[in-house]
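Key result, reporting period 2: structure in, sequence out.
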C-alpha cells in the first residue's frame, strides 16, 4: 500500500485528489493532508472536507512531524511551499509529485537537482489529454515551421493565482524548442498601446481570469 500525503488539502485540486485516491485506487491511500495554519479547515477530517465522507485523516499544518506517515507527497500548492516540500522530501528520501505552477527558473533548477536523488514527477498539467496536446503542438510546429503566428490564449477561474497558466507556458515552450527559438526572448505577455506590428518569431500569451472557468487553452 502506497501512503499518500496531500499538500494543500483545502484547495480545489487537493480536495479532488483526496476524493480520487479514496474512490479509484486500491493500492494507495491518503494518510496525511496539509492545510495552511490559518485555514479554518485545520484539524478537520480531510474526507469530510473533500467529499463529505470521513476518512479518519485530520488536516495538519506542519508536515515535518509526519515524515514517517507517507511515502509520496503530492504537491499542488504555491512556489514557496513547493520549495520547502522539495527540501523536505530530499532530506528524508521521499517521492514527490509536483503540479504547482508559477515556479521560477531558480526553483525549477532546485527541483531538477533534487530529482537526481529522489523520484520526482513535475508537470504543469497532469491530464492525459493536455499532455497529448503538448505532443500535438510539437507535431504542428514541425509541420508548419515559421509560416504562422503563434498566439496562446488561456482562461481560468477568478481564483487562479499564477498567470499565464503553467499549461499555457508549457505549450509555448514546446513550440519554441521545436522551432529552435529561445523562449525567454520570443515570449510576449499581453500587448498594450501602439506597436510597429508583430514579429513573426514571437509567441504571444493572453490571459482571462473570470467566474468558475475550469481551464481553456487555445
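The corresponding designed sequence is given below.
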Amino acid at each position: 500500500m502506497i501512503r499518500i500525503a496531500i499538500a494543500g488539502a483545502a484547495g480545489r485540486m487537493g480536495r479532488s485528489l483526496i476524493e480520487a485516491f479514496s474512490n479509484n485506487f486500491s493500492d494507495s491511500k491518503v494518510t496525511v493532508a496539509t492545510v495552511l495554519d490559518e485555514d479554518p479547515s485545520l484539524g478537520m477530517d480531510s474526507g469530510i472536507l473533500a467529499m463529505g465522507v470521513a476518512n479518519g485523516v485530520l488536516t495538519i499544518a506542519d508536515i515535518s512531524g509526519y515524515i514517517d506517515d507517507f511515502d509520496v507527497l503530492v504537491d499542488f500548492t504555491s512556489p514557496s511551499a513547493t520549495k520547502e516540500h522539495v527540501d523536505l522530501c530530499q532530506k528524508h528520501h521521499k517521492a514527490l509529485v509536483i503540479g504547482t505552477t508559477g515556479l521560477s527558473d531558480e526553483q525549477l533548477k532546485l527541483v531538477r537537482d533534487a530529482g537526481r536523488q529522489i523520484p520526482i514527477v513535475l508537470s504543469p498539467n497532469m491530464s492525459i489529454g493536455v499532455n497529448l496536446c503538448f505532443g500535438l503542438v510539437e507535431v504542428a510546429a514541425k509541420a508548419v515551421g515559421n509560416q504562422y503566428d503563434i498566439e496562446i490564449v488561456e482562461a481560468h477561474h477568478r481564483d487562479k493565482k499564477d498567470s499565464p497558466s503553467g499549461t499555457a507556458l508549457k505549450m509555448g515552450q514546446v513550440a519554441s524548442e521545436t522551432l529552435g527559438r529561445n523562449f525567454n526572448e520570443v515570449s510576449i505577455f499581453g500587448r498594450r498601446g501602439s506597436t510597429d506590428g508583430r514579429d513573426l518569431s514571437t509567441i504571444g500569451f493572453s490571459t482571462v481570469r473570470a467566474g468558475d472557468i475550469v481551464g481553456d487553452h487555445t
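The CA atoms of residues 152 and 205 lie 5 Å apart. The first strand starts at residue 2 and ends at 7. This case is discussed further under Risks and Mitigation.
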